[in-house]
Predict the structure.
Amino acid sequence: MAKSKDVRITIALECQNCTQKELGSKSTGGILRYTTRKNRRNTPTRLELKKYCSSCHKHTLHKESRK
């Protein structure tokens, strides 16, 4: 059985441009989310990566979202 404090955890990355647009309007486009795994010991801070957003049609900053 796996321990509850595993070193590697699965996280979700959200597009920052889309989340800012969602706050201002009531569009139903949705927010693009990537899932990835990170090591808690190596990266204790929130993860930030540049990924492609299909709703923005460009590479944007994706930040680790709160669960």
The domain at 6-63 is CATH 2.20.28.120 (Rubrerythrin, domain 2).
